[in-house]
Every structure is written in C-alpha cells, then in structure tokens.
Write a structure and sequence with these properties.
The chain has 572 residues and is mainly β. The chain is 1% helix and 44% strand. The chain has 4 domains: 203 residues, Methylamine Dehydrogenase, Chain H; 78 residues, Immunoglobulins (Immunoglobulin-like, Sandwich), CATH 2.60.40; 82 residues, Immunoglobulin-like; 84 residues, Sandwich (Immunoglobulin-like). It contains 2 helices and 53 strands. Strands 26, 28, 29, 32, 33 and 34 form a 6-stranded mixed sheet that branches. Strands 36, 38, 39, 42, 43 and 44 form a 6-stranded mixed sheet that branches. A hairpin with a 4-residue loop joins strand 14 and strand 15. The longest helix is centred in the first third of the chain and has 4 residues. It is flat.
Amino acid sequence: MPGAEMGAYRVAGGLRAGVALVFLSLSLLVVQGAAGAPLERGEVILKAGGGAGIYSPDGYFIGTFPVVPTCFSPDGRFLLVPGGGLFDDFGDPLPSQWSLDKPGGGCAADNSGQVYVAAVPSGWGPRGRWTREAWLTIEKFNLTGELLATYTVSDDGELYGPQVVDLALAPDGCELLYVNYGGQMVNRYDPCTETQETPIGRVYQASELLVRPNGQILVAGETRVELLGPAGESLRSWTFPIARPGQGGHLYPRSLALDPDGVSAWMEATPSPAGFCVYRLNLEVAEEAISKWREPCGYLAVAPVSAPPSPAEVSAVSPSAGLAAGGASVTISGFRFDEVTAVRFGALEARSFTVNSASQITAIAPPGAGTADVTVTTSLGTSATTPDDEYTYVPSGAAPAIRKLSVDHGPAAGGVSLTITGTGFLGVTGIDIGASSVERLTVNSPTSITLMLPPGTSGTGDVTVSTPNGTSAATRRSRFSYGPPVITSVAQLEYENGDGTGVDSIRGSGFAPGSQTVFNVVGRPLTSVSCPSSSYCTANQPPETRRVGPHLAIVAVVGGRRSKPVHYTYSP
C-alpha cells in the first residue's frame, strides 16, 4: 500500500485506445514514464513530488506515464498538455494549435471533441487584482485548439471570489456544471442555448465536482463530500477528519475521479491527522471510505475505460485532392499508425509511404479517378472509411480564376456569406482571404463557391482559390476589404506589474497579428501589445493612463483604420 512497502508487478507505458485519464483539478497532473504495457482499467495515477506514479486499485506501485495532461477526450484518445499541445493515447504529439499556458479552473470534453476550459488568466502581479469578467469566462475549443466560442457565466453570489475552480459536463452535453472559489452551490450554464440556469444543491465551499453517467453530481467541499441528484437534491454525504494542524484545519479536496466500476469514486485531499490523503468512496452507501491511503499524496486520476486494441483511424487527408496522374505528396493524419503494412487510395496502394509517427503518414498518391477513400492497414486491420479520409482526383487543366465576388467588403468579425464566381473550381484544397483561411465552404460547381467569411485583419487583401492545378491569380476582381477593427470588451487581467504597468485583455475583431495593432488610451499607446489572433490581444497599460481616473476610453488602430472608442473601468 502507499506509505508502506510496495511491490511492482508490471511496468505501464502508453494509454491504450479507449483509455481515458480523468483530471479534475486546478493543478497539473505530472506523469512521466517508460514504454511498456498499456494503462489498465481502474489504475490510479498520483502526482508525487516531481513526477507521477501509477498504482493498482489496491495501492501497489506499477510504473509511470509519459506526458503531462490537463484535459482529455471522453474516449481517452486525446490528451491536452499546457503549452505543449495535443497528444494521442500513446503520448505521441498530434498537429494542433493548443497553448494552455494559463492555470485554468478545470476542463471538460464532450463526445464530439469539443473542450470547455475555465479561462482563468495567469500572471499575478504584486497587487494581483482581477476583473469578474476574467474570472467568469469559459471558452470552448475543438481538439486542435481552435477557439470556437466564449461564454461569460454567473456565480451563486455566496463565495470568496468569482473564479471558476472546476467544471464538468452533464451527460446530454448541453449543461455545464461548475463551482466558484468558496462557493456554496453548483452553478449551471447551457452552452447550446447560451443561457444561465438556476444554481442547485448546497455544499459548503465547493471546490471539485464530477458527473456520473446517470446525471448524479458528486461535489467535494471544505468539510464533506455530497452526492446530489440531477435536480440538486441531496442523496448522501461523507465527512472526513480535519487536516493536520498548520494546514488550515479543513479537508481541502484537490481532485475527484470516477472509478470505472460506476459505483465508486476516488478523492485526493490534504492529509488527515492520521496521514490519509486518498479515499475511495462507495457512491451507493453513505459510510466510511472503501479504502484510504497514506503517502504519496498528490493530484489524482483514474483510467476509467479499457477497450481492446482497435485498427488505425484516418482523421484528415491533406491536400484532399490531387491530379489524376498521381504523384502528389499527401499527409495522412490519424491515430494508431503502428506496424503499418499498407496505405491505399481506394483499391490502389500508395506508390510509397513513410510513417512519421503514430499519428502521421506521408504517402505518394497513385494514379486514379473520382473520389477515393484513403485507408491505413496495420496488424489490427484496416481503418474504416469516413468522409474525413476522402481524396479527389482532378484532371490536369488550367489554374482556377476568379471572375466576381458577390460582395467585396465585410465586417472584420466575419460571419457573412460570400459567393465566388469563376472557373476551374475542381478539387478545391483551400481558400484564403488575405491572411485568413476559410474553414466553412461549399463548392457548388466548377464555377461557383459559397463560403462563410472568416474573421480577418482590418484592411484589404486578395481572395485566392487553390486546387491541384494551381492557385488563382490576384486581380482587381479578387480584392476584398475587411472593415475597421472593433473592440467588444476590455478585461483587467492584472492590476500592476513590477514596473507599475497594468495588463489588459482586449477582445474584438480586425486586430493585426503580433504587435502591429495600436491601442490608445487617453491619447497614449498601450505597450507590449501581443495579438495571437484577430480577435484577442493583451497589452500593458502605463501608469500615467491610470492617473486620469478609473473611467477610460480605448481605441484600436490597424493600418490607419480606427475603431470606435469603448469605455471601461479599471480597478485601482
């Protein structure tokens, strides 16, 4: 058992397909390990010191695991790592744009691959002040790290601070459950309709929660753990000895995880007077924990699923079209590309292929016609065909040409329909508007494309269409102009840095990437401007602007185009 002599009976390495890591904590679960047998159903992962150990359910040390996950997909195939990106269930990196370098207040993922993250910003200053908007923001991403939506939620009003400290997703996927720092109730928000719902339950200083498949909610508070029904009714509760002297005299749970047996849950908390810090609870009976462990203590996760190994899966093919003569280099993305024996385009084998990693293959397309499914064969079988693996063969011809745009200007926030008329729109592999790539498009015919305008940088650029036969030339008929920048909100992330400047978070549209956007407050520019996207920037507010008073106006300037002023208040 932990704290006593432990016998290692095998070495664990990667996550097998279908194995999930449950992670419900403000802090990171640090896991490092070596290759070997996959993580098995019901095994417990505990952070201990600078690493993490894998333990059997009865407490025997087994081994370690290779990456540092902060969130997971329900099927366990995807692990998010702060600052490091997206990994598959074997710990291999996947192409993504994730950058979770902020602490965050927990996360949750649905079965479609959408991830909800409590967007708590990082970087406390000497006088660390935060706005309520910054604390009460939940962001939705897809698995590649693209921001899909931002929600501003409410708290229950009975708390120490408004920040979201943990969240979970109800089984229907349309109810986010979350708790705030020192809060007393479980708050609810419907992301499908973007509406705040009435809080439920009552747990003193709730800090961790999880949702069972039957909709019941397990909430850990400062002195007890409560099981609530879907409507918030109390079903049963557990109380625990207070922590050791000098540790605040309270339970302070730090993580919860559901056991794969469906009837028990694991909790990690500050050590009790007897040194216990890990508890396994029977959720069907209100009695003392089934088992409890002493050291090592640390943030906890459990492997809830154990599925048999499955064949490879193809999730994307890039480019998705090529010339009928073959010979194009095609990047195939997916999962479980281990011991690959064949790559086929329809019934034809690729001219050659190279397995770059367990999630990526580069193949040379054979000759062909029409649309073919790209499949990968391993020792476990051949990948199933889906629309994501389709590759279209295009006859050799002239490059596409744009003759007309239905509109030649639009808002920097995007979101309006645009129709492109021209020629050669066969096997379209990409459309760009200036520096912005179009994600949502429909090729109506070889002469017509309809698309949804993506967000872009204020200013004028060219619309280009790419196919296997080339990219359309820029002409006056392809010119498109994004409107002036727009500021929608300003949130005070940090009141004061060491040099006396404050840090602001600015959301809107039309911002130029990097540091090319200028923000003026009372005629003075903000400094250290950084815009990771056209809709979000951070900047330092100099001390002299704050001396004017707490009520300020901010203007964005991009390429000579100015936004309308937006008024906001800073907290001194």
